[in-house]
């Protein structure tokens, strides 16, 4: 897929149906970031943009689907809470979020960073100050869990009894 | 006839106050916090989320606190709350094969790839009360294996069995076909596997445990083995209409059980192993196992087995599995039935009178 | 990192309700009032603006009643308007279908061309609630018009005037009555007002 460099920021507004891999990746990371981290990075920004709510944070549900036998026909397992938000920054960018749980501020911050990350001039810095640490934190948690589980791995040995 | 009964307002209001005081308990003891329930009563939280059919640890903990620890009441509270929320999307099917497992065992293969990881289990405890927990200050830390690979594959046991073609295959359904949603449409018979699994996932653990147990004791026997049980985290991904591409919204903990059951074969199928499936929110191993047993039992008709036992009767199981419905119908008997009862009383009096008259007539005839 | 790819047709949508919860609840009450009093002109007054060619009342009803579980169909006059469709997708999160039979809500801007409802779902005898609700944008509604309405929700009769539909439309309404318990429900809309004609309402004149 060829990437198109946009000549002016006016055209940087995201489309509704952009199949954007990067955006997909950062939205997923931000949804799993801790609110404390997001708030801290937001407060530490040298220039925070003015913004308004296009859709104020709203809590609803997602029906979680699974497959019979893990790989067969689909069925509905149960719902989970999710909060979504859409902000519009002063430079005309629209940021969106879908975040598990009911924390409105969390969803607002994710939408804000989604808008900021669409600005190529901010992306490198945010990648360094926000996305990398978030990714590292998720990995760290995972590694910890794996290590604890691995310590409970059964080490079978066979006892030979009697004469052969 | 229906007679409105009024006059209980003051009594009800005071009963609410009394309930609130009882819930709080001894004021000399610090009040329980949601954070404490959430982090130390995790398995209660998991059960309430599964049967309340809403994954939200804070809400489940709140429900448990409000219900004074009555989990069925907490499940009812969560079910009621979920009706106030709009639904934004259906998730993509969660990928349990790539679960970041914290526990994973099989009773069919000793040396399965990825190994047997016991995880945080009660299984090998001696079920002796630990009096050290009477006091605070238990700070045991888990051991860690520094060489563990977080990206190691954990192939499904059923995939291993399939190399020999000895187990039935689960095949994905048509992606465009609708999936039954019992929160939106009534239960219809015969119920598809989608409706059955959703019903069982919401179903009461105690009920499913008993039904599963009954199959083991001979009421619709299915010769089960715990092929694989795994518990851990999976990502949840949705494709919102207003975004148009898939996005991960977070991670949830789930427990999965695959039962492998002997099957002698039928006119159309060779002898092979068949499967039953169980899945819960959080760590709900007993429920997942019971669910898998009952799922397999209810597949009797589909597999050409004779339906002889309650666990194989889908109407019996699916109509009685939900504890919110069951407790509602049982507990509605507490509502005023004064007029009904007056009617019954009148009828019993008349029957009694008729019987006495008949006996007297018979006597007179002799 | 890749640059964001642009979709030239998309623009930031017009805002919806000031307060989505209060707004949609109020509009729900207003539609309920109109639906339970067929033929009564009811004001739907919760949106300051709506993208062309949607009436404010049409847009407000969609924002209240349409969501991702209720597929929406729109006639070509509305469906060809990118701003209107983006607005509906954004605020309702609804799937847009090309098949009117699949639609739970259908939006019709070219009312004069609407001569029958057989393209839309009448529901089934078992599940009559699965039918399509049609929101038809007409030119004008008057309470003292030449039509006489009767049926559930109307004590004796009620009069109504509708400008902008063909005479075949009224034949279709009568044919729709005959399908009961199946049948579509109609919401006629002008700028800020609506009239409901549920499947049970008989229209003479």
List the helices and strands and how they pair.
The complex is a heterotrimer of chains A (164), B (366) and C (205).
Chain A: H1 21-32, H2 35-44, E1 51-67, E2 74-89, E3 94-100, H3 104-117, H4 120-150
Chain B: H1 9-24, H2 34-40, H3 42-52, E1 54-55, H4 57-66, H5 71-82, E2 87-90, E3 100-105, H6 157-162, H7 193-202, H8 205-216, E4 224-238, E5 247-263, E6 272-281, H9 285-297, H10 314-320, H11 323-331, H12 338-365
Antiparallel strand pairs in B: 3-4, 4-5, 5-6
Chain C: H1 20-36, E1 42-43, H2 56-65, E2 72-74, H3 76-79, H4 82-92, E3 105-108, E4 133-137, E5 140-150, E6 158-163, H5 167-177, E7 185-189, E8 193-197, E9 202-204
Parallel strand pairs in C: 2-3, 3-4, 4-7
Antiparallel strand pairs in C: 1-8, 5-6, 5-9, 7-8
Helix pairs in contact in C: 1-2
Provide a descriptive summary of the structure in words.
The complex is a heterotrimer of chains A (164), B (366) and C (205). With 164 residues, chain A is α+β, with helices and mostly antiparallel strands. Chain A has helices at residues 21-32, 35-44, 104-117, 120-150; strands at 51-67, 74-89, 94-100. Chain A has a domain at 51-119. Chain A is built from 4 helices and 3 strands, in the order ααβββαα. Chain A has a 3-stranded antiparallel beta sheet. In chain A, a hairpin with a 4-residue loop joins β2 (74-89) and β3. The two termini of chain B are 44 Å apart. Chain B has a 4-stranded antiparallel beta sheet with strand order 3-4-5-6. Chain B contains 12 helices and 6 strands. Chain B is 39% helix and 15% strand. By secondary structure, chain B is α+β, with helices and mostly antiparallel strands. Chain C is α/β, with parallel strands linked by helices. Residues 1-9 of chain C have low confidence and may be disordered. In chain C, the strands form 2 sheets. A 6-stranded mixed beta sheet of chain C has the order 1-8-7-4-3-2. In chain C, strands 6-5-9 form a 3-stranded antiparallel beta sheet, with helices on one face. Chain C has helices at residues 20-36, 56-65, 76-79, 82-92, 167-177, and strands spanning 42-43, 72-74, 105-108, 133-137, 140-150, 158-163, 185-189, 193-197, 202-204. Chain C starts with 19 loop residues before the first helix and ends with a strand. In chain C, 43% of the residues are buried. The longest helix of chain C has 17 residues, at 20-36. Chain C has a single domain (20-204), classed as Rossmann fold. Chain C has 5 helices and 9 strands, in the order αβαβααββββαβββ. The chains are: A alpha+beta (164), B alpha+beta (366), C alpha/beta (205). At the A-B interface, α1, β1, β2, β3 and α4 of A face β1, β2, β3, α7 and β4 of B. β1 (51-67) of chain A pairs parallel with β2 of chain B.
